Amino acid sequence: MSLPEPEREAEAAAAIGFDLSECVREPIHRLGMIQSHGTLLAVEADTGTVDTAALNTLCLLGIAAEELVGGPVTRVLSPDHWAEALQISAQHDAASLVLPVSVDVAGAPRMFDVTAHRHGPLVVLEYESRTVAAPHFPHFYQGVRRALARLRSSTTAVECCQAAAREIRALTGFDRVVGYRFDGENGPGEVVAEDLAEGREPWLGLWFPASDIPPQARRLYRENWIRVIADVDDTSVGLHPPLRAGSGLPLDLSNSVLRTVSGFHLEYLRNIGVKSSMSVSVLREGELWGLIACHGYAAVTVPPEMRAACEFFGVAFSLQLAVIEEREQAEALTASRERLDRIISRVTPDLEGSLLAGDDALRHLLHADGAVLCRGGQSTISGMSVPPALLEALQARAAGPAPGTVWSTDRLSEVSEVSDDPDGLAEDGPAGALMVTLSRSGDFLAWFREARPTARQWATDPSMPVQVGPRGERLTPRGSGAVYRAVVRGQSLPWTPTDRATAQELWRTLTGLVLRHEAELAALNEQLRITNSDLDSFAHVAAHDLKEPLRGISNAATFAIEDAAAELDATTVRRMHTVRRLAGRMDDLLDSLLHFARLGRGGLHRARVPLDRVLDSALDVAGERLAEARVRVVRHDLPEVYADENRLYEVLVNLLVNAAKYASDQDDRTVEVLVATLRPPAGGPPQQTVVVRDNGIGIPPDQQHQVFELFRRLHGPGERGGGTGVGLAIVRRIVERHGGELWLDSAPGRGTAFFFTLGQEGG
Fold first, then answer.
1. What pLDDT, on the 0 to 100 scale, is given for residue 477?
2. Distances (CA, A) of 50 to 47, 74, 110, 241, 243
3. Whole-number CA gyration radius for the chain
4. To the nearest 10°, the Cα dihedral for 280, 283, 288, 294?
């Protein structure tokens, strides 16, 4: 269809600029205007006082808006009807209920249909004149019932949309009704079904840019099943007062049936020759799946009963669509069951080895070009190569949602975590991804697809949604007579609901297998816990009970030396001194054992504590030892950490004393305390890590595994300041009780760095 000559000339001559971003920013729910075929009152629910009124109340209700505001609503609504409106507005589907009322206007009764909805403290009442005897809901019910019967015979989503378009047009009489499906929450839309009057140009199969329906309009479509425009050339009616005293904003008309629409949208409809329109939302799991869009080429006032019937149809259509999609999904799952069973049958606790075996079954499960399993910060990849930056972005996205959450996109280049990182995508890398989360720490299983160029027919140039029209630059689709054929690149084949369901089914089965393995492991851990508890109790009791006889031995040796030394020979005196010294040594060991046992018996009292303060307390004890060894303390900016302050104090004291004991012979002896974000050797995401690093004598590699063992010293009892060899064992136990990890990095002659984490906050 070509434009008439005058319009082509207007296009060529027009030079008015059009900023598309103004459409996106426009507050369409607060335009402060309604359509003129009805009027509106906003009433305080608690008092029945009119807060806001449309400026056309005088001609419709017989009382001016200025006079109504501040007065009782019962001047234009009987007390019984007001009570009923309060009850209606409290219901979830209030806008679909119609209240017939009679208002005395200039001494004569006038019939209105009133809809009511609640908005905060206000009840919004919308009056629409009943100028002719309109058919009531039972009349429409029969049509809706027949339409729903036809819907139930549909076997695919497209068939369902086509039946819906046909039945809505038969019910309403609009000239064109289209089924419009969105490509993603904020993507463009495709006309997948159409029913139109003879002689009209078909739109079936055409795509329309996402800019045609900006985000705030999509939000209102999600919140309201129906939106009607009676006449695109209607002179909208303002409100009194135009701005509400409390907020300084116009009344929020998000749920109003009379709300006027954006001037941009009205211009859009005029440019395609539409005089009136109605849209019925199609929702899928609370999200906007598409629209049933109705266009009339003459002004049409849709009565409330018809709106209610269409709303009911829209709800039923959405449910039927869900049934169809779930049936298709179930059938596809059944078809993929053999592939799924083959994968599950070979799964072992070694997920990496069993899931990503060499036969590519995991990739073929979702017809993907690549797959990856990421656990504990380690990634195992099958098929196409995946940039490390993309894996990190997916790991960040997976950390947080509940396990089993499925996320997918066929346009990775538009995902912010990826598009913001130039290393996240490669020309020959993935264009689409489907990921199922395995844990809140960022573990995931994902599939990838390469880019697949796709041809589309657009109703307007998608790269130039704003075109010059008869009224200047406007959103102006042309229709199939000026189709723009474009190839979409950088996009993979879309992931279907079946793909998502299959991925979740695999996760569910894996979870069952892993849980069974974890149950077995938990049973072993419980046995180990009981054993450790028994050992702790034994160590505590044994150490406590042994101290008393040991004290007797030491005292007996002391008394013998003091009372009978003159009568004993030198050898016996020397032996008595040895007994007393060994008893003292044994007493020190028992004290250390008692302390070590108590660490396993008491609870932790964790809180956010300043690491600086804990270090100061530790230096009160260890500072003198460090000064004697001429070891200088170097501290960096230390943040707060989540820990038991008393136990953390013990950790720092032991590590600082250790630095003093094993200082080197060089002049500049130091011990540093800092915090860094590091990845533990066992894997997993980077964590806040406390580092205590000295430049002492260091530890040979073959002895490093021994230093955390109980009562193990690498030097003799009297060397390097002595001790029982329990200090680092205590450090390890405290760190483990916090749920953290402890490791070291050392070499002879270059010092030792101890690293430890303190587990997750709230853990």
1. 47
2. 9, 9, 20, 11, 14
3. 39
4. -20
Q: SS3 for 459?
A: coil
* Interatomic CA distance for residues 376 and 180, integer angstroms: 44
Cβ pair 590, 711 in contact under 8 A? no
Contact 295, 227 (CB under 8 A): no
Round to whole Å and give the CA distance between 401 and 763.
17
Q: What pLDDT, in 10s, does the model give residues 318-332?
A: 888 888 888 877 887
Reported pTM? 0.57
Q: Give yes or no for a contact between 719 and 712, defined as CB atoms under 8 angstroms apart.
A: no
Residue 529 neighbours by CB under 8 Å, 6+ apart: none
What pLDDT score was predicted for residue 35?
A: 94
In the predicted structure, residue 33 carries a pLDDT above the cut 70:
yes
State the DSSP H helix or E strand holding residue 509, giving kind and residue range, or none if neither: helix 497-564
Q: Identify whether the C-beta of residue 75 lies closer than 8 Å to the C-beta of residue 101.
A: no
Report H helices in 103-195. 137-152, 157-172
Task: State the Cα–Cα distance between residues 215 and 757, nearest whole angstrom.
Answer: 44
Exposure string of 454-489, with b = 16+ CB inside 10 Å and e = fewer, is eebebbbebeebbbbbbbbbbbbbbbeebbbeeebe
pLDDT in tens, 330-346: 887 777 777 788 787 77
Contacts 24+ apart (CB under 8 A), 718-724: 720/661, 720/662, 721/625, 721/657, 721/660, 721/661, 723/661, 724/588, 724/589, 724/592
Report the alpha-carbon distance of residue 110 to residue 116 in Å, rounded: 19
pLDDT of the residue at 3 = 36
Residue 96 CB-density burial (10 A; 0-12 exposed, 13-18 middle, 19+ buried): buried
If DSSP codes are grouped into helix, strand and coil, which group holds residue 554? Answer: helix
Could you tell me which of 371, 424, 423 has the C-alpha nearest to residue 397? 424
Quote the CA–CA distance of 508 and 485 in Å, as a whole number.
43
H-run or E-run covering 643: strand 640-644
Place of tokens 């009382």: 63
Q: Is the dihedral of CA 678, 680, 684, 690 positive or negative?
A: negative
| 3-class secondary structure, 98 | coil
Q: Where do the H-state alpha helices sit in 565-644?
A: 570-601, 611-628
C-alpha distance from residue 213 to each of 22, 56, 468 (Å): 13, 30, 19
User: What is the mean predicted confidence (pLDDT) over 565-574?
Assistant: 76
**How much is the pLDDT for 433?**
93
What's the rounded Cα separation, in Å, for the pair 209 and 205?
A: 13
Q: Are 244 and 288 in contact (CB under 8 A)?
A: no
Reference 617, options 649, 655, 640, 642; nearest CA is: 649
Distance separating the N- and C-terminal Cα atoms of the chain: 67
Please provide the size of the chain in residues.
763
Which residue from 155, 152, 274 is spatially nearest to 212, judged by alpha carbons? 274
Encode pLDDT of 486-537 as tens digits: 666 778 888 887 888 888 888 888 877 665 555 555 556 656 555 555 445 5
How far CA 72 is from CA of 206, 281, 627, in Å, comes to 52, 36, 85
Distance CA 256, CA 116 (A): 9
C-alpha span between 372 and 417 (Å, rounded): 18
| Phi and psi torsions of 229, nearest 5° | -120, 115
Would you state the structure tokens that stand for residue 230, as one six-digit string?
């009676």
- Helix ranges restricted to H, 602-704: 611-628, 645-661
